Amino acid sequence: MAHTALARTIAGDVDPTTLGVVNAHDHLIRNGAGEVYIDPDHQLDDVDKAVEEAGRFVSASRRWAQAGTVVDMCPANCGRDLERLAEVGRRVPDLHIIASTGFHREKVYLETRSHWVSRYSVDQIANLLIADIREGIDRHDYSGPIVERTPYKAGVIKVATSYGVITDFERTCMRAAALASIETGAPINTHTTFGTCGLEQARELIGMGVPADQIAIGHIQRNADVYYLRQILDTGAWLEIDGTYRIKYQPDTNRIMELRELGELGYGKRILLGTDSGKRSYQKAYGSVTGVDFNPAVDGPRMLEEGFDPSYVQDLLVGNGQRFFTMRKDVRGDQS
Ligand SMILES: [Zn+2]
């Protein structure tokens, strides 16, 4: 049966080749919830600031493509505010936004014995994720018993694990995410904590039936060990590299080294870039020297200056993300 390639943005389904530069893991809006309780720097509720930040990203993207796409990786019950996110999308020309469903790591939900993930069946949880993808994300971010669907659908599913451990809560989330991905054809983009459990995420999700090439193991640059990264890639999964200019953790040379070596080893078609600028102090609109525009503004020119093949740089910024964020099934849902 004929299959039209589509990516699911909050403004509707689009031809993936129109996504332009794809920032595979970032944050434009987050309004409250656990991370903000842990550190108020995570509160990103200002639409004007988000418009400014996304505008800078699109401007920097124009060197490489006609448009820019931000994949906003705020998952269920973590402060999603689709009305604000959609307003950002409407106000920035040539900006696409892909919103997520799925889950963060357990710590972000604070006390979890009472959380609905710990009470519902895996099928019930999966159905909530599927509805976010097919019908529209809950206006209330699954924070309470009343669900009202916005017209804004999720186009990616988040999976997350803790530092060196996958908790029971996280494994339940992972099972539900796998079911939702298989059912809808939406890709899975993960959070690893400090780059740990990446190999386990890939193996377990593949074991649950998710096609390897629909899984991207995220924040993995923190584990700057090319042997380890190759093991993940050899499962067939993708890598997502972000944490740009996060000098308190590691210099950017580590990311550039990973990108160079993995490209030379032939894995360059399965690597995504993001910045994960999920705090006010990581965004130019709030006064930082770095922000959501880092990949097209700084990384791209740097890689060219350091002798990377220009077609590889174009893949990293543009082509790879357009392939990864293509929905596997016909987006009507069910026939593929
Ligand atoms: Zn993030």
UniProtKB/TrEMBL annotation:
It comes from the Bacteria. The modification N6-carboxylysine is found at K158. InterPro entries: Metal_Hydrolase, Phosphotriesterase. Keywords: Hydrolase, Metal-binding. Gene3D superfamilies: Metal-dependent hydrolases (3.20.20.140). Belongs to the metallo-dependent hydrolases superfamily. Phosphotriesterase family. PANTHER family: PHOSPHOTRIESTERASE-RELATED, PHOSPHOTRIESTERASE-RELATED PROTEIN. This is Phosphotriesterase-related protein. The lineage of its organism: Bacteria, Bacillati, Actinomycetota, Actinomycetes, Actinomycetales.
